[in-house]
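hey
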């Protein structure tokens, strides 16, 4: 590995958001084809290009972890990425900063098994922010 390629940071990719809690069991496909049932905690809701978008995530002590795909996957970026939004405040407000999107461990080695984005977490728009590819 020679490094990680990333998009130049831009403030426009730091978006105000809210967390809508909703615990639910979801079928999550892994990169090796295995399908598991996992509990998700709710959705990070934000506006992008004038359209409300929603990404399902899991709430943990470090924030809300989201696995997402976008229109750059496979061409400009790896097949999917992760982003962690800060814990919401008492009103549910948080921020989703795509500049902090990072590559999953399976981008670096086939030895890692990662969850794929759920269908609702595949954005139809390009997210040109954060880490994009492993430089080999």
């Amino acid at each position: 590995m020679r490094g990680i390629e990333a998009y130049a940071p831009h403030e426009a990719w730091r978006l105000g958001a809210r967390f809508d809690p909703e615990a639910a069991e979801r079928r999550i496909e892994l990169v090796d084809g295995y399908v598991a049932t996992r509990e998700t905690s709710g959705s990070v809701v934000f506006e992008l290009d004038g359209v409300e978008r929603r990404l399902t995530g899991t709430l943990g002590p470090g924030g809300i972890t989201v696995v997402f795909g976008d229109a750059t996957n496979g061409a400009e970026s790896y097949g999917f990425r992760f982003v962690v939004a800060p814990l919401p405040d008492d009103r549910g407000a948080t921020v989703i900063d795509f500049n902090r999107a990072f590559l999953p461990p399976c981008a670096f080695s086939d030895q890692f098994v990662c969850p794929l984005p759920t269908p609702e977490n595949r954005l139809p728009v390009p997210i040109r922010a954060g880490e994009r590819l492993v430089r080999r």
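DSSP finds no helices and eight strands in the chain. The beta strands are 3-6, 14-29, 35-48, 51-60, 63-68, 81-85, 93-97, 131-135.
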